[in-house]
Amino acid sequence: DWVMKDHIAEAVEKIREQVGDEEVILGLSGGVDSSVAAALIHRAIGDQLTCVFVDHGLLRLNEGDLVMDMFVGKLHAKVIRVDASDLFLGKLAGVSDPEAKRKIIGGEFVAVFKQEAAKLVGAGAKGAKWLAQGTIYPDVIESGGAKSKKAVTIKSHHNVGGLPEQLGLKLLEPLRDLFKDEVRELGVALGLPPEMVYRHPFPGPGLGVRILGEVKKEYADLLRRADAIFIEELRNFRDDTTGKTWYDLTSQAFTVFLPVKSVGVMGDGRTYDYVVALRAVQTSDFMTADWAELPYALLKKVSSRIINEVRGINRVTYDVSSKPPATIEWE
Ligand code: XMP
Fold first, then answer.
1. Is residue 35 a known part of a binding site?
2. Is the ipTM beyond the 0.95 threshold?
């Protein structure tokens, strides 16, 4: 529509004025805000933008490839993909405390990003001068006063605090005045797929806080496959009255890996395998949340698919806890 086209043109013009012919670095996470910021800045300055995508190995099934297909394949943006999964798994070995895991993941994430960014800054006369971030208006308000410990962690994870100064970079934040809904509309207008732009939120530490206790590659691989089935079926099942998919009718839905084995039967044999929990909530602000009353047919389909298709998981449970007193995530 007209209003959105004007808005894009204006934003593009502003970015060009700010940046001139200088180079820009952006940390791409695959999340909505950094994706929309990347698409917008790329529209404005093309190859003057280099995105750094740190893959910590705790992303969802094929997520890294999807990000690359979109930004490199379709938008032709410059993206440096850093596969740091071994590094992260190494640092997480033997660590089971949730906050300790968050600190390690957040800390390593910044360290890896900084290392890559420093290379781009140090690239001679054409060295990068700007750090772009997908900060949106609610982030601006929120960082006015620190709230809970978790809120601080969330902030420090994706809006890498202090980093521009440390790298000697100027800060570019083209989404600073926008609310989430406006960011999503902008993303669609810029040609990002609606499934990407209307995705449920995904925590910075990723599957690291959805594998209870110690994180292991084996667990992450099982969880990724189970979770992909859950999400696929949420997108397949529609509610008759609204016509909406259950993915769109829930605010956040995911699978949690429990490092616990239980007994099952398969064919003539006994199995002794892992358990997963499905979590789906409805909320307007994520401060309180109700567990979603998913149709039994959907739960049944997901359960039977996970148990049949993911060897190593023989039991699926559904989390019927509201927040409070439970939290949305299990860690
Ligand atoms: P809880 O579990 O506290 O989650 O009810 C509320 C919302 O915050 C997200 N969350 C995080 N996001 N880093 C993030 O970027 C984190 O460490 C983190 N912990 C929780 C959670 O997914 C939910 O949307």
1. yes
2. yes
